[in-house]
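=== Structure Prediction Worksheet ===
Name of assembly: unnamed complex
Input type: mixed (protein and possibly other molecules)
Chain count: two
Listed entries:
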Amino acid sequence: MKFLEDFFNKTRPHFQKGGKFERWYPAFEALETFAFTPPLTTRDGVHVRDAVDLKRTMFTVIIAMIPTLLFGMWNVGYQHYKAYGMEMSHWDYFVFGFWKVIPIVAVSYAAGLAVEFLFSVLRGHSVSEGYLVSGLLIPLTMPVTVPLWMVALGAVFCTLIGKEIFGGTGMNFMNPALLARAFLFFAFPAYMSGEIWTDLSPEAGRTLVDGYSGATNLVTFDENFRNLPSPADMFWGFEQGSIGETSVAACLIGALILVGTGVGSWRIMLSCVLGALFTGYLFNLLAPADMPNHAMHTPAYYHLLMGSFAFGTVYMATDPVSAAHTEKGKWFYGFFIGVLTVTLRVFNPAYPEAVMLSILLMNVFAPVIDHLVVEQHIKSRLKKSKLSRA
Amino acid sequence: MNKTIHIRRGYDIRLIGEAEKVVEQAPFSDLFAVKPPDFPAITPKLLVQPGDEVLAGQALFYDKDRPNLRFPSPVSGEVTEIVRGEKRRILEVRILPDREVRYATFPKADPAGLDRAAILELLLDSGCWQYLRQRPFSIIADPVDVPKAIFVSGFDSAPLAPDWGFALAEERENLQVGLRALRVLAQDNLHVGIRDRGEGLTEADLGDAVPPTHIHRFRGPHPAGNVGIQIHHIDPIQPGEKVWTINIQDVVIIGRLFREGRFRADRVLAFTGACVSRPRYLRVWTGQHMSDIVNGQLNSDHCRIIQGNVLTGKTSSQNDFVSFYTNQITVIPEGDKPEFLGWLLPGFHKLSLSRTYFSWLWPKRKYNLDTNTHGEQRAFVMTGEYERVLPMNILPTYLLKAILARDIERMEQLGIYELAEEDVALCEFVCTSKIPVQRILAEGLEYIRKEG
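=== Predicted Assembly ===
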C-alpha cells in the first residue's frame, strides 16, 4: 500500500493551511483516515490507548446488521415470487432481492455522506463515522418499493435535521435514521404504508395469485390477531415488511454480535423485551373475556415477533447517543420503549409502526430519565456523607 | 482484621517488559537537577545561586505562598546553573555533585517519643514535607492543617508497577519508623491498604507500626492500588474534609531521616517496558541524570521514555533528571506509523476492552503497546465505558460534563474532591472517543482551587 501512502503524502500539502484546497481538509482527512489509521501519538495523559475507536465501533455495528441485510435481500425475492405463485431456488430469490436493495443502499450512502462531507467542510469539523451506520439503517427500514428519490431525501433529512444542526454525531438527541423514517412515514404515507411491501414488478405471463394481500402482520394484527402468521414464520421472517425488519432470527444474530463485542447495550435490549412482555401479560390479564378476538388477548411473546420490534430493539434503541446515558437510566428507557410499543399497538391502530414512535418518544425522554438518575445519585451521595458525619 | 474489600471494576493492562526481581545500582551521575515543575501548585523562590555550595538536605528553593515548604537538594555539590523557561519560570536547578555526598545533619529521634509539633518541624526543616499530598486536589499538604487521616497504599497495581514487597525488602525498619512518624502526624488515623494476596507489602512488613484495625486488604484489578480508590472504600472524603496521602517509598525516606538524621533520597525504581533490554529494579538517586540510567539499556532508538507508568507517567528523555516522586521508568515504542485499514482488520494483537478486535480470544496474552492513539478525538458517543473501570460511586461522564461547563456546584455534588488524575487514567485509556479525561479533570480541580 506504499503507493496509496505516497499519494496521500503528496497531496496533503494542498489541503493543509495555506494550500490550494485548504477548506477541503476535513474531506481529505476523512478519506485518509479511512485508508490509514492516523500516525497520531498520545501527548499528555495516558501513553497507551485502547485499540477501539469510533470507526471500529461503527464498523462492528455494520457487521451486526449484515444478517438482516442478507436475509432482507432473500426475502424481497421470496415475497416477489410468492406473490406470483412461482417456486424458484433460494439463489434466485437472493439475486432478485440483491438487485432491488443495492440501489437503495447506494443512494442512501451517497446522499447522506455528501451532506456529511459538505457540512464538515463548511463547519470545519472532521467527518464523523456516525453515518456509516445510519446509511445502512435507513434502507433496512424502508419498503423495497420505495422510490430512490425518497431514500435520498430521507438520507439528507437524517444527516441535516437528525444530526448536523445539533453539531454532528454525539450531539443529536434523537436517533437520526429513525427520525428520517418517521419523516418519510408522515410526509409520504402513500409510499410508506398500504400495499407496498412486496416488489410487484411484472413477471412475463404471470398474474398475482388469488387472495394475494400486501399487508404486513401488523395490519393483520389490527384486524384480528388470530389471523397472524405462525410464530415460527414471524420468527424466521418469511413475511412482508421493511427490508431488514422481518426476521427476528437475523436480529438475534446481530444482537449477539453487539452484546458480545460490548458495542450495544444488553441492558437496553433486555429491558425493552421485559417491558413488552410485562405489558403484554398485563393486557392478557385485563382483557375483556367476552371479546375473544380483542387485541389485548394477544400472547405477550407475539409482540416480540411482530413488526419491527426486534429490529428496533437491537439496532435503534441501543444507539448510545440518543438512548439514556446512565446505566440505571438504560433500564427505564428500554422498559418504557417496550411498554409504549405494546400499548400503542393494542390501543392505537392508526399507527401500527409503534416501535418507531416509541423509540423516538423515549429518545426525547432519555435526558429526563438521566436527569432523575443523576439527581438521585447526588442525593444518595449526600445522604451517605451525612450518615458518616453523624 | 478488616474484611477484604473487593474491587470489581477496573482492568489490568498486561504489558511485556516486567522488571526481573533483582536490584542493581545505577551509575552515579556527574550532573544532578531538581525540577520545580515536578511539585504541584507551587511558585518557587530560589535560596541559592550559581556558585553556591550545598549539602544534601539543604533547601534549594521554597514556595512563595507557603515559605515553610522548602525543597531540598538530594546531593551535595555546587549549584552550576538555573535553567529557566518562558517568563523566566524556573525549570531546573542544576548541581555538580561531590564524589562523596555530604549531608546536612538533623536530630535523630524515635518518632514514637516525639509530639506532633516536633515531627512537623523536622519534616519541614529537612524538606521531606513535600512528599505529603493533600486530597482533594492532590497538591502538597498544608502544614497548618490537621488532616482527617493519612492514607498509604502498600501496593501499586498500575501496568508493570514495582512490587513494593520486593523493592523495599531491605528497608523494612526505615519503613516502620516512617509509618510511626505519620501515625503521630495523623493523630493515630493512619490507614494502609495492602493486597490480600500477591505482590506488595505484607502485614509482616508493616510490623506493629500500624494497628491491625487500620490495615485494609484489597482484592481486584487496577486501580485497586490507587490510594484514591482505597480512600473511597475505607472512609470517603466529604465536602470540607482534607486527608493526606503519601507514596510508600517516600515513607521510607522519612524513616531514614529519623533513623540516620539525614535526607538520603536514593530510591529503588522499576525499570520496565518493551524497549528495555533487561527490565529490572534499579537503585537510583533522586535528581540524577536520566542518561546514566537509559543509555545503552534500550533495544530500540524510536521509543518513548516515561517517568512513571504508561497511564499516569510523564514523558521524559535521556536529557531529563529523575523526579522526586518517580518510582518507575517505562520505555515503550513510539506509534507514529500509519496502518493501512487498521480499523478494518481482525486485530489479533490489538488490545481492547471492547471485544471489537479478536484479541479477546487470548485473555492471558501480554501486549507490546505503542503510543499510537488508534483513532482521532470525537464527541462523547459511547456510554457506560468509564463506569466499567472506575470502582467508585461516581458518574464520570456527568462529572466531566460539569467540568467542561465550569459548574462548580455540580462538580462538588458529583464527587470531584474524591478524584485525582491517576484515578481516571483507565477511563481515558478505554475511551472510544479518545477524550483527554485526565486533563479535563485536572482543569476542573485547578478551576475549583482558584475560583472556589
